[in-house]
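hiii so um. not sure if this is the right channel but i have a protein structure encoded as tokens and i wanna go backwards to a sequence. like what aa goes where. can anyone help
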């Protein structure tokens, strides 16, 4: 049978014309639910039932085996005991069945014996060219096509829409489905991945990228099992203009070897995932609610052209909440243009205040056109990129339903005709009622984002995704050029690390490696006092930890004494000597470190340096490759960024100069090959336009 094109296989998996339920039984809740779902939600093809005893199952004739089915089968949904799964796949392959959903658990997640069984299943499936979703997964809901081989009940109505959902959790799938339906957010596909033995999350992302029914992809991730494949799929989604929203849970330790560098204390799995998702244009959220709400907003509103938001509400209290959250999300609420303010003043009651956010007041209960007319005026403001309209769908059926129908129909026409995108946000996160759903369907009113809190988070995410997409697409991979380094093993202490950096043309403080008191004094005389004397020995990572640094040495006697003290501290170290350097004062000390993350590769951390790095843990991360613009943005994210701006009368740092040096350090790290574990500069001294490396450490595998 041989190999099969993965994309074609996944496409066939999610779009079968006929299905066999293997292990069908009236005693199995899985079987009852799966059969009921297929019949209730529009699947029009044949559904064959397979039970070794034959007879009647779910009121229909069952067949003893796949070989005895009366017609061809596109998908087998497997619910048999763990030990019977592989025989079923063998029988199915012999019968020409290529696609499988394996609900059965007890494989790799259950221990060594289960892992061996799973490996056998994988080996056979690959040899036979089968496409297998699972094992240990509930199946999927292809809402767009009405194909629902899913092992738990699907409550009506099954809303079809533009959000594709991929979950590494079977237990949460039904909860996500219920929440999306409660918020009237339609799905194109929802799939529970199970163990991902063959079909993986990147495979399904690729399918959704190609799926015309999907506009936005929502992911619940416990882990990113293949970062390279994930990155390729995420870039395809970005190029196609389909936002990827991800809730990534779980934390894992960075490999312990990176702890030799201070940078290792700043870089961890969770922070690196943030940096990786930023690089790939993946929107990361922190809750299931935000996952679905943000995906729903992006599917409804599409890209938002900028952060300048005009807000129209009927509530002063809501205006204050929105103003606070806008600052959190990096959104701008600019003052209205004079012409906008004048036009608003003409229609608002005299007790209203014309400002952004705009509270049109409770007068909307008297004049039902007021909110819509204010929306028209704000949407025309030349200083606004998008409009946020605060309103909820009606929850209860009034005595005269035509009144809210007319109001929302008028709002829908205004929103459709608006020269700028309009995002509709509700006050709180509540279920959309049946009447509210009917109003939305009959009037064409757009998606209402659930609640100010989730709405502001979603708007901020949409703005950031829209702004970053073109830049992310324009990124080029690293050049792949390599610099040969002789003797690259273990820890390179400062004298070797500094030589590597200086050889690459980076600004390193002058230094001289000396052996003996006389040599130390001679070097100090050449540099001029005051000087610094530091311990130097093979493999010495942190000099300060052994008392190996002496600062502010103002004469030969001080240098001699310092040399003796440092040599005493180095007792037992090979190649013991000392570095002599001119003393530097003033400026701000930064850290710039590159660490190889075991999953995502080389990662840059920038932060406050010197003794502050481990005290404040104030850092920003970027995956390599980076350019100077990336570094400058990272520096701006630091809590201590004000120190670089010239706080308390100090000299402002030349951020372009700093970013240029750090970008060159990162480029050097990228060129050093796969054996580089970490390269750390701490401190990097910045004094105005003067940028100088005062200490460095390199670690090799």
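sure thing!! here u go:
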């Amino acid at each position: 049978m041989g190999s099969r094109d993965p994309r074609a296989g996944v496409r066939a998996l999610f779009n079968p014309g006929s299905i066999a339920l293997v292990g069908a039984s009236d005693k199995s809740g899985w079987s009852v639910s799966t059969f009921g779902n297929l019949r209730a939600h529009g699947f029009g093809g044949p559904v064959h039932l397979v039970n070794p005893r034959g007879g009647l199952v779910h009121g229909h004739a069952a067949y003893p085996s796949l070989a005895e089915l009366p017609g061809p089968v596109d998908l087998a949904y497997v619910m048999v005991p763990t030990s019977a799964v592989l025989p079923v796949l063998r029988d199915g392959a012999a019968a020409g069945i290529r696609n499988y959903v394996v609900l059965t658990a007890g494989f790799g997640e259950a221990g060594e014996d289960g892992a061996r069984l799973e490996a056998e299943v994988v080996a056979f499936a690959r040899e036979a060219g089968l496409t297998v979703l699972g094992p240990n997964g509930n199946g999927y809901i292809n809402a767009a096509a009405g194909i629902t081989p899913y092992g738990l009940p699907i409550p009506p109505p099954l809303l079809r829409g533009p959000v594709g959902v991929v979950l590494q959790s079977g237990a949460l799938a039904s909860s996500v489905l219920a929440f999306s339906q409660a918020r009237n957010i339609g799905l194109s596909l929802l799939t529970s991945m199970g163990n991902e033995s063959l079909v993986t999350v990147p495979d399904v992302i690729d399918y959704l990228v190609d799926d015309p029914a999907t506009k936005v992809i929502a992911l619940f991730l416990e882990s990113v099992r293949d970062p390279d494949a994930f990155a390729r799929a995420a870039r395809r989604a970005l190029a196609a203009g389909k936002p990827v929203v991800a809730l990534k849970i779980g934390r894992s330790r960075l490999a312990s070897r990176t702890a030799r560098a201070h940078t290792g204390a700043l870089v961890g799995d969770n922070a690196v995932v943030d940096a990786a998702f930023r690089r790939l244009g993946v929107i990361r959220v922190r809750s299931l609610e935000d996952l679905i709400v943000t995906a729903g907003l992006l599917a409804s509103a599409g890209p938002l052209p900028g952060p300048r938001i005009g807000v129209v509400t009927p509530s002063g209290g809501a205006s204050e909440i929105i103003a606070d959250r806008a600052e959190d999300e990096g959104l701008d609420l600019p003052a209205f243009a004079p012409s906008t303010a004048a036009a608003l003043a003409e229609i608002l009651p005299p007790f209203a205040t014309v400002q952004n956010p705009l509270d049109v007041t409770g007068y909307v209960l008297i004049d039902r056109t007021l909110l819509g007319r204010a929306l028209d005026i704000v949407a025309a403001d030349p200083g606004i990129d998008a409009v946020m309209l605060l309103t909820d769908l009606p929850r209860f059926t009034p005595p005269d339903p035509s009144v809210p129908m007319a109001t929302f129909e008028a709002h829908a026409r205004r929103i459709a005709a608006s020269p700028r995108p309009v995002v509709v946000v509700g006050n709180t996160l509540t279920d959309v009622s049946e009447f509210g759903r009917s109003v939305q369907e009959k009037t064409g009113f757009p998606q209402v984002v659930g609640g100010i809190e989730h709405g502001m988070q979603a708007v901020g995410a949409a703005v950031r995704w829209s702004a970053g997409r073109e830049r992310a697409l324009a990124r080029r991979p690293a050049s792949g050029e390599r610099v040969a380094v002789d003797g690259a093993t273990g820890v390179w202490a400062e004298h070797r690390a500094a030589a590597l950096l200086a050889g690459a043309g980076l600004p390193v403080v002058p230094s001289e490696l000396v052996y003996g008191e006389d040599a130390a004094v001679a070097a100090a005389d050449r540099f001029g006092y005051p000087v610094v004397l530091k311990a130097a020995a093979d493999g010495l990572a942190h000099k300060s930890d052994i008392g190996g640094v002496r600062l502010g040495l103002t004469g030969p006697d001080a240098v001699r004494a310092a040399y003796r003290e440092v040599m005493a501290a180095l007792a037992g170290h090979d190649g013991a000597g000392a570095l002599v350097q001119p003393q530097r004062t003033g400026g701000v000390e930064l850290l710039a470190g590159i660490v190889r993350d075991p999953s995502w590769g080389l990662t840059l951390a920038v932060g406050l340096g010197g003794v502050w790095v481990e005290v404040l843990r104030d850092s920003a991360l970027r995956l390599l490759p980076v350019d100077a613009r990336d570094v400058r943005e990272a520096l701006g994210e630091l809590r201590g960024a004000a120190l670089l701006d010239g706080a308390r009368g100090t000299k402002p740092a030349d951020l372009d100069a700093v970013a240029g040096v750090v970008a060159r350090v990162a480029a050097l790290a990228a060129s050093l090959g796969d054996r580089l574990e970490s390269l750390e500069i701490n401190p990097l001294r910045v004094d105005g336009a003067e940028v100088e490396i005062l200490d460095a450490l390199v670690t090799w595998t």
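oh and The CA atoms of residues 161 and 653 lie 51 Å apart.
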